Amino acid sequence: MTDVMQHPHLLIVDDDVALLQALPQALRLRMLGVEIDTADTAFTALELIQQCDYDAIISDIKMPEMDGLTLLDKIHELRPDTPILLVTGHGEHELAVLALRGGAYDFIQKPIDRDYFVAALRRAIQIRQLRRQVQEQQLALEMHAKSLERLIQKRTNELVEANATKDKFITIVSHELKTPLASLKGLAQLLQRQVDKPDSAELVKRGLVDMERSITRVNVLVNDLLDTSLAETNMFVVHRRRCDLVALCREFLAEYTAGAGPNLSFDFTGSSIEVEADSNRICQVLMNLLSNARKYSPKGSPITITLQQSGYEALLSVRDMGIGIAEEALPHIFNQFYRAPNAEVLNGAPAGLGLGLYVTRKIVERHGGRIEVQSTLSGGSIFTVILPVYVDVSEAHANVNVDALSPQTQAVWTVAHQQASHS
Ligand code: ADP
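Above: the input record for the complex with adenosine-5'-diphosphate. Below: its predicted structure, written as tokens.
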């Protein structure tokens, strides 16, 4: 039994003021917790009904101004589910029949048999409340069905989108792989024809260099694609170990600039910056950012790598003085396959698939970090990777080393590519 059942709310309408006092009193004695409003005219009753959804309404059938039958019609318009019991005078069978035909729940004859009246009222209230429950359940079911519909629509949209991305993926991949493969095939055929000819050594050598370049290109594409598909399926694993980011960057950059590569200058103050990182993946991030900095900058323009600690964060930024990125392109550059309209490759590696920054962001996020970019068209770009520094929990509790967290460690490398190309 619901709360409402325990406290049914009723309205009694009668122009007989004496009855309006006596009937509620009698009902309160027989129905514990009942709440009763009264109205001495049909007009007052209609006002009350507008404001309150009663569990049942009891109305005299014969009233001046507006009789019970007319009131019955009006209540049905306002509250079609409220059961109405009409009180008829003794022997007014025709009126009683009219009342039932007009949709009254029951009729009560005067003089009122209180027991019969209460029993009829209880039934009416119960029916009203059951209807209310059914309505509530129906509403809940409808809402559930709607939310399921929305979920299905959302999933369908996601699937459609994923399918479109796959199609795009396949189109781009086949297109991008075609060029280096065609060039490889052409070169292999050329070398086959040349290999037995006298004085072919120089030509064969050049052909092999070109072939290696094409193979490198295919290799980069396949690696980018593999990383992208792994990142998509959440199978992108990083093996994080505690390491010094300063040493990691220093070693990577020394290797990057080794041999006939670009010049490197280095300036360092402070101590190490400990992070928990997959060193290969962090090198991949640096490589991507450096390769972009080079690709989208004029020949020989310097690239600056800065590493510093600020509070609990390590900030690693790569800054170039290149073509920059237009404001409207900035929100898209970390998306798959996005290439800005001004993305004309000036140096170094050939144009990519627009996957490098997508993979870079995924790697950084897998380290609990984030990547930010500041750039203006023709004004160069700064890409900043922000990683959490390693905090030894036992040490942190015992004694927080504030000095270690202050931004005193700063390492700056400047890479200047020579005119001779480095790939
Ligand atoms: P891509 O293989 O095309 O370089 P990325 O995902 O690495 O793909 O970069 C996406 C796009 O972001 C690039 O096509 C380019 O438009 C822009 N971009 C990235 N880095 C730079 C940069 N250093 N300077 C200017 N534009 C950049």
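Notes for the reader.
The longest helix spans residues 114-194.
The chain has twelve helices and 13 strands.
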